[in-house]
Amino acid sequence: MIDRVSLRWRIPGIIALILIGAVVSLSILAYGAARRSAIDAAQDRLNNAANRIAVTAGTGVNALLKTANDVASDPAVIEALRHTGRPMTEGARAALLRVRTDSTTPLKVALLDTLGRPVEGVTPELAPEGPVERLAPVDSPSILPFRAVNGTLEYIIAAPVRDSGRVIGQVVQFRRVTRVTTSLRLISDLIGDSALLLIGNADGTAITELNDTLRPPVIRDSSRARQARLSNSSGSAAIPGTPWAWYVEYPESIILRPLRTLSWQSVVLGMGVLVLAVIAGALLSRGVTESLANLTTTAEWIAGGDLTRRPAGVRRRDEIGRLARSFSTMADSVRDSRDQLERRIEERTGDLQNAVTQLRDAQDELVRKEKLATIGQLASSVGHELRNPLGVMSNAAYIIERSMATTPQKAHEYLKVLNAQIRLSERIVADLLDSARNPSPQRRRVEVKSLLTEQLERVTVPSNVRVDLAIDPGLPHVNVDPDQVGQILVNLFTNATQAMDEQPGVLSVSARNGDWRVRIQVRDTGPGVPEDLSDKIFEPLFTTKARGIGLGLSVSKSLAMANSGSLSVANHPDGGAVFTLDLPVGDLP
Amino acid sequence: MRVAVVDDDRDMVRSLCDILELHGWETLTSYDGEAAVALSDSEDVDLFLMDVRMPRMNGVNAWNAIYSHHPEARSVLMTAYAPPEALALAKGHGVVRILRKPVVIPELLAALESARQETV
Question: Which of B12, B22, B53 sits opposite A402 (nearest CB)?
Fold first, then answer.
């Protein structure tokens, strides 16, 4: 889920970042270039404007110089300098007053001799601002650079006075820069009202603004001028025939205003494009990620076992369509393989079931045969066993019949034999019945000692076999079926007696208290049980005896277990077999 | 004529001896095959009435051992089952007859009588 979201937004995010980078860097480059060209263009226009007004101004200046030269050439003026020390004539004064034009009136007009001393007799009308300083003589009519005087800009126009080619003095006019309405109008017409018109020396000193027509011009110092140039574009043009120059300045903010507007429009446009690009990217990536999500979901379904699922978009002509088609093909082949596998499994299962059925039939057949064999073995065994006592009984009956009249003693003897053989036959039959049905024990508290002695009495022990009975005093009662346990004991006693094979021996019977058990052990002094047969002798139909059907120990073990006891056999280290019968105590705490 | 009665069932041996004595036979007893072989060497026995199934040595083996030393002796074997091969084996080996158990006394007496005639 996280992957899908991140991929969904990662693509548009990357697109947006790339676009932002491109737009920003292009904007910076374009703005720089546009700004430079705009400023250059402005510079050109400003220079052009400055030149235009410089030409105009030059015309005015030439007129002023011509007037000054005319005055200097006046005979009255020459006459006045020829005779220094004399008061100025009326003619000379009138000539000097001609320098006053309509528009510009000099502050002072003076006549200086070659040493720069002013000629006496200048009326206050001509020199309202007081005395005139000395000036070096000039060779031709000249305009001197501006000077800053009391916050205003002053300049001097000097024209040499010649007498027969020799310079004998000069006419000087002291003038102050005032309004330049014509130039301002011209500038305004040329480049608009925002332009600043400045005038000053061509070397950049003593520049003043001329825009404010109401106030007197303010001198700009050089640092202010520099500062102004930082934020303003400026053009300049030397005024011909003067050491002056026009300066035209224009605020960059105004020059660059259209550019800035364009920039803002570009930014807005760029943002719009960006948003569109992000949306387009999101849509595109959704197309991809949704297909991928669909593929993933389908894959999960298929992995979950639903092999009928197929991804969407198999008809697409792009890579996703290809992916979906190959995925679909893969799912088909997986389904086919699975179906094939299932069919094979079914076939094999069928075969297996058949085999199992056949096997079961064969097994049943075997079991049936085994049962028949067992029954046959049992029948043969029992039949064989019964033949002996029957033969003896038959013999006994023959002898009794023959000897009853003559030797009744013998007949009597054989009646006993007959009796014993009948009991033997009964036991064989009883064993057979016991092995066939094992009745559930009728358990009760039984005293061990009486149980043992009663059963010992039932067994015919040969006279050369000594019976050794050892019973612990204070033995608890046992909780057993006395008849069944009695049968076990008779079996064990009989076996022990037979094992000793009519040789002299000892039948040891002991009863001891154990761990919630009473342990009865029956030991004989016979040959013992071979090691490899100690388990086998408890199996039904197993016998080591020439006579016997092999059911006694098997039945005994079953009976012991039915009474919550156990029966086992071992060989005594001193010889002979020891059968151990453990019985549960009846006196529960 | 002396007849040895060989069987591991003592009651059987005793009752057979009593019956044979009633009919004038002198009897000897033995309770397994080995004892019978020993008896044939220590006593002069004309006839052996022997059970086939016995501990230590069965009746057929015991009889073969006896017959190899005493070819003049004859025997009557008793068995619960009389397999044909046992009969075939006994042919020409001094076995007069094989009786099925339980033995029918007239048959037993007849067999012993024919054995007596063979040994004479």
Answer: B22
